[in-house]
Structure formats: C-alpha cells, structure tokens
Amino acid sequence: ADAYKGDYAHFTLKEIWEQPLSILKAGENTRQAIESFADTVRVAKQLYITGSGTSYNAALVAKHLFLKYGKKKIEAIISSEARFYPDYFDNQSILIALSQSGESADVIEAVKIAKNNGADIFSIVNTMTSSLTQVSSISVGLNCGPEIGVAATKSFTSQLSVIYKIADLVCENQVGFDIQKTSSTMSKVLESSSKIQKISQVLKHASDIYIIGRGIHYPIALEAALKLKELTYIHAEGLPGGELKHGPLALMDSNSFVIVINPNDSTYTDTLTSAREIKARGAKVIGISDIVSDVYDHWIEIPTINESAYPFVEIVPIQLLAYYAALENQTDPDYPRNLAKSVTVK
Ligand code: G6P
C-alpha cells in the first residue's frame, strides 16, 4: 500500500506528509542494532561518516550533533571523494555509511576502500536487503517504507531520527531528543502548508535562491538548496551566514531570494544580522523562525521546540516550498530530469 499515492497529487507530497509518523518508526525494526551501534561509537577512536546527496547532508547533521552534545568528533566524507583519500582509514576506524537505497555505487566504493584498510562498517539504510547491509557489521533500518520521489524527503528525516536516537545514547541524554514532541511539531508545520504554498509563488521567477543557516542549520541549508535544485531547477546555494562577507554578498541585489533558517537558539542573533546585511542589498528575505522580524518579507512560522530538534522542524517547510515551487514551474516533482533515485554507477 506504501507505493500508492492515495489522495496525494504526487509521491513527493505524500512522503513529506508521512514524516511525523516515519520518524517514529525509524530504527524500530533494529533496536538492538542501535544499542550496539551506540556502544561502539562511545569508545571509538576514529569515527567517519559518509553518504551521497541527501544522505551526505544527514551525515553533516550527525557531525554537528555529536560534536555539540557529546564532544565527539566525526569526520564527514562525501562518498565519491573517498577514493582520493584511502589513507583516512585504518584498523582503528569506524565508518558509518548512510544510504536510503543501500545501492549507491559511490557509497559502496567508499565502504570498500575503508574495509580494505581495516575499518569496521556500520550502516544506516532503508533497504535492509541491499548491497550495503551485506558489507556492514551492523545495520540500522530507516523503516520508512518505499520512497518513490527521486528527491529524498522522509528518508532524510528518518536518517536524522536514527542519528538522534544513537546520539541520545552516546551523549548521555544531552541531546534531549523528545521524539513524540518532534513528531507533533512537524505535524503542526504541515498544517500551515497552504500558507507555504502561497509563499512559493514568489519563487516562480527566481533565478537564484540562497539559503543561510549557521551551526547545525548549515547542513539543513545545504539540504534545502539540494531540494530546490532537484525539484524546481532553480539555482540554489546553501551558505553559513558568516561567509556572506567573504564573497557571496557580491551577488546580492534586488533579484536575489534568500531563505533564512533562523530558529530561536544560539545561532539566532548572528543569523538575524546576516539577514539584515542581505536585506540592505535589496534581496527578498523569507524567514523560517519561531520569532517574527521586520527583516522578513515573508515569515514562515515554526513552533518553538527544544533546541536540538529544530532541524526536523525547519526542513519540512523547505520541502513544501520546493514542492509547491516545482508545481508553479511545471516541473515533475517526483521525477526530476537527468536524475535517478538510485545511482548504481560511479
Ligand atoms: C541519488 C538521489 C538522491 C540521493 C542520492 C543518495 O542521487 O537522486 O536523492 O540523495 O542518490 O542516495 P542513497 O540511496 O545512497 O541515499
């Protein structure tokens, strides 16, 4: 039944709406694996994490999360880059591989390189019968059901959910991941989808969209840019706000659109300052925040939640924005041109 669209116009929309439930199910079929995963990560000397596309963005969230809440360093490696740095890995290394399909050739290659150098492989994967699980010591299942839309949505938040569950164990509850609260807050954001659909109309004639976010929101800005590129074919770029002055500010003018990811946490004030700098150059600013500000031309309100959970809550309006902007631009949100759901060639 999972592979039917039901009442939804597209699989992508259905999969976006499934997220409040799918994050709850993440890892639930492999609870034991989560615990052994956490036990090993806790004592690991050298930790690496890899993935491609959206899965790499989830890997970056993991890097920020473990550093912030557990003082644990994880090196994030883009899977297709691993071949140039085989010496990263040795017999003290643990490589965590993230993949929805478990079949991406780049991910499998990175895993093989690490394994040949003696590394141990842990994976977080949706398809438990995939090639990736066969080369892993431990695999945790995303358990989110088939994802048909080429642009990853629910698999991303399920990857985050598994990562947060592991981090909660490793970082001695510092993460404070209240999954029920996170789920119900995502539902609240989905309820504002008609407002988000209206805002998506302003992106119709955009040729460039910038997304800024700092700290753990930087990987979300990268994921936002990826969704916008895949679904709308509009050029989109994710940036940490502090880097604007080192180059990208030169691009800002009255034709620019900027999405500012600005939840009420330790990044708030710095990000608001960046938003003002952009606004002063005439750009249109869309703010995603629980706090209203005159700097936003359009405000997408998100509910306030405990600090660590904001990534789950802020990606939802961005997925909806990209989906509705795709409809405005008459592209096919489920099957973007030139892309495949699972890339099994290098
Ligand atoms: C393809 C898809 C992306 C996906 C990436 C990694 O490029 O189009 O949506 O993020 O592969 O896929 P994986 O199955 O390894 O997570």
What can you tell me about this protein's structure?
It is a single chain. This protein has 346 residues and is an alpha/beta fold. 42% of the residues lie in helices and 15% in strands. Strands 2-1-3-4-5 form a five-stranded parallel sheet, sandwiched between helices. It starts with 10 loop residues before the first helix and ends in an 18-residue tail after the last helix. The model has no long low-confidence stretch (mean pLDDT 96). The site of 6-O-phosphono-alpha-D-glucopyranose has 16 residues, from helix 4.
Unreliable parts: none
Compute the gyration radius: what is it?
Answer: 19 Å
Tell me the series of helices and strands, N- to C-terminal: HHHEHEEHEHEHHHEHEEHEEH
The general outline is: globular
Q: List each distinct ligand once.
A: 6-O-phosphono-alpha-D-glucopyranose
Strand order of the largest sheet: 2-1-3-4-5
Number of strands: 10
Euclidean distance between termini CA atoms? 33 Å
Number of helices: 12
Query: What percent of residues adopt helix (DSSP H or I)?
Result: 40-55%
Largest sheet: 5 strands, parallel
Decide which structural class fits the backbone. Answer: alpha/beta
- Average pLDDT number: 96
Strand content: 15-25%
Summarize the structure.
With 346 residues, the protein is α/β, with parallel strands linked by helices. The protein has helices at 11-17, 19-25, 31-43, 54-70, 105-116, 131-134, 154-170, 179-191, 193-200, 217-232, 268-280, 310-328; strands spanning 46-51, 74-78, 93-99, 120-125, 138-141, 208-212, 235-239, 257-261, 284-289, 298-301.
